[in-house]
UniProtKB/TrEMBL annotation:
GO terms for cellular component: cytoplasm. Signal peptide: none annotated. This is Leucine rich repeat containing 61. InterPro entries: Leu-rich_rpt, LRR_dom_sf. The keyword Repeat applies. Keywords: Leucine-rich repeat, Repeat. One of its GO terms (biological process) is outer dynein arm assembly. Gene3D superfamilies: Ribonuclease Inhibitor. PANTHER family: LEUCINE RICH REPEAT PROTEIN, LEUCINE-RICH REPEAT-CONTAINING PROTEIN 61.
Amino acid sequence: MDSKRDKDQDAEFEKITPVLLKSRTGEFDLESILFLKLRGLGIHDLGCIGECINVERLDLSGNNIANLAPLASLRLLSVLSLSANRISNLEPLRSCDSLQNLNMAGNIIPSIESLHCLQSLRKLENIRLKDNTYNYTNPGNLNASYRTIVLEMFPNLKVLDGERVVGRGSDLYQLCKDIDDTIKAGLYKNGQLIEHPDCKPWVEDSYWEIKRSNSAIIEEAYKQFNDVLHECRLLNNRAIHVISQTERSMSLKKQPKQYAI
């Protein structure tokens, strides 16, 4: 009897239903759901997920999803994880205007051309199509020029496959990548790095110098902060005094009047 009940419960997870969503989020109204995590439940049918029109973060990784059509109505969705599924067509995501972060590692996306439908998503700045940590990839990643092509397709992209390509930290990341590539190229012989006289440094000599801020500005800001903090303490003391007087006054009013005989 118990095995039948467990089997019925597993069958519910094969498709997203209102009952599943309400049990996972505690929300009675599907439109009230903002964050949704449905990882590793064996889901293959997105069912009523399209009714969660206000969802902003959605994790559907580790399922058996192939059809993304129900996601087309999620216009406020900004973070979407679909890693480790069976997805080959990204066309339904074209209408997810708010999408910023997309994880599609570990699917069956056939080629880089499959990403063309996402080029209209102006806010998209983080795409992951492979994940070396879990050995997730896609057939389209096998192209030797894959990285270059994707960056040309999405000029606003800041992070690709977990690697920062622009912005703060990108120079350091590229430096580490160059070092790794050098090691992989076999430039070490008997534990020693083969020197090349024509090699140039990666960065300028002044790159690592600490740029000092104007100390006068910092001191003035610190002084203003202390002044504000002092005023807050004075207001707190006044509030405590007023509350104390009010409580004392109320306690006197509640005391029964005594008459001399």
